[in-house]
């Protein structure tokens, strides 16, 4: 069955003047959902009966069409997209296709501006049967039935940043919060993707996340990071137990607590020496 807004593996059925017609003979033997791959996307070499992986979306007349262009977002996913123009129905965003994707005014968390980027969710509007996007992302997330556990490694998307912390989307399903005082990278922006860990799940199903594993699990990656920095700095870092937390954050993007745990583990393994002026890599 043809899936609009997603990649489809389809069979080349016939070659015409306007392009190749693709379909799924096994699940659609009558060819009701055959779709055109226009000439400009047709591979130089092909055979009838060969399978192609294509993205299927709706053209200007809302007809399914196939393309080999790579979309910036798929159906039921989030992405940071740029507004190309605005008219009387809403904002139109660049999503890698010839036809821009619409964000209706009623689906804008705040009025969008041309040239700016916003985190949006792509969905199929049931009333119009069209692909549209929305920057009101919370409506597509739910913490009612959680699919994650404490300590689990997860995928994070930065949703928006407030005074309290960094709101994130967890595995494109749940809402979570990353506290600012636990983040040691000032370059984090809306739309950034990163790996994180479930730090705590509260009784009301609100989720706290961290960018580093908690407890002993965090020591090994931090230790590896310090070793890498030492090797890149000719075996010496001007940091030790007495260094100011901001200095550690600037150089290593980690907390002083994590730093002390990591250098303690490296010292026990006799991989470093800790001196008054800093730490040294043991040859």
Automatic annotation (TrEMBL):
Pfam families for this protein: S1_2 (PF13509), WHD_CvfB (PF17783)
Segments forming domain Conserved virulence factor B first S1: 4-68
Residue intervals of the Conserved virulence factor B-like winged helix domain: 224-281
Protein family per UniProt: Belongs to the CvfB family.
Descriptive protein name: S1-like domain-containing RNA-binding protein
Lineage of origin: Bacteria, Pseudomonadati, Bacteroidota, Flavobacteriia, Flavobacteriales
